[in-house]
Write a structure and sequence with these properties.
Structural class: alpha+beta
Number of helices: 5
Shape: globular
CATH class of the domain at 35-86 and 155-167 and 195-238: Alpha Beta
Strand order of the largest sheet: 3-4-12-11
CATH architecture of the domain at 35-86 and 155-167 and 195-238: 3-Layer(aba) Sandwich
Distance between the termini: 23 Å
Order of helices and strands: EHEEHEEEHHEEEEHEE
Number of strands: 12
Length: 239
């Protein structure tokens, strides 16, 4: 049985005749102790606080029967480990996209980036999205800096908390659909086609961090902790 926050992804599972439902990883509507095993792949690194990440692992443990196991994968801060580059970094050189990546950085965001899909993005648009995020999340409270860095595609991480742009390429749109357009920066009246860009939050885990969070729970024990292609991974056993 699978679950996801995205209804569209769950619908795809249904079309493939898999059992899946929509839910939140912090509150899974399954009885406690009813699962032999649970798998959480690339989920926990999207929770924005240490408390929520811990609560997600506690919820996984709740679902397990005594002796049951859970496998957890999260994105690693260390994309180069034991002198080996991850597949994520290696794919930069092998990309078919030969266009020069545009720098989307500003003085407030020293670590600028492209997302998992190699398409360019307009810096003005990126700055506006981040400003909107800042205004919505911070309100009127005085803070030092609530702007998150935007990660550059296929590069090492320079911050544990960051935004990764996800690009919906215009080529994927139907021919009859209109393509998003906006003014080229610099005051030009020419129109430039742009892909839709969505910024997704990530907390990339440093070495030992995921294991330490799991060990803070007295209801599970860590069977194994390892690194796998740019991810930190643990196997837990319910006590």
């Amino acid at each position: 049985v699978g679950c996801d926050r995205s209804k569209n992804l769950v619908d795809i599972c249904g079309e493939k005749h898999f059992q899946a439902f929509v839910c939140d990883a912090l509150s899974v509507p399954i009885r406690s102790g009813s699962c032999d095993a649970c798998i959480s792949i690339a989920v926990i690194h999207h929770f924005s606080t240490a408390e929520r990440r811990l609560a997600t692992i506690r919820e996984l443990a709740r679902l397990l029967r005594p002796g049951g196991t859970a496998l957890i994968y999260v994105w690693a801060m260390e994309q180069e480990y034991k002198n080996q580059r991850s597949k994520y970094l290696k794919e930069k050189n092998g990309s078919k996209n030969k266009d020069k990546e545009m720098n989307t950085g500003t003085a407030q965001r020293p670590f600028s980036d492209q997302g998992p899909h190699n398409s360019s993005q307009d810096s003005t648009w990126s700055d506006q999205l981040l400003n909107d995020l800042k205004n919505e999340s911070c309100g009127a409270k005085p803070v030092a800096d609530c702007t998150l860095p935007v990660h550059t595609n296929r590069t090492s991480f320079h911050s544990q908390d960051l935004l990764v742009p996800w690009h919906l390429k215009s080529g994927a749109k139907k021919k009859e659909e209109s393509v998003d357009r906006m003014l080229v920066p610099g005051g030009s009246k020419e129109l430039q086609e742009l892909s839709s860009v969505f910024h997704r939050y990530y907390h990339v885990f440093s070495e030992g961090e995921l294991e330490a969070v799991c060990r803070s729970l007295d209801c599970v024990r860590v069977q194994k902790s390892y690194y796998d292609q740019g991810n930190w991974c643990v196997i837990l056993e319910k006590l």
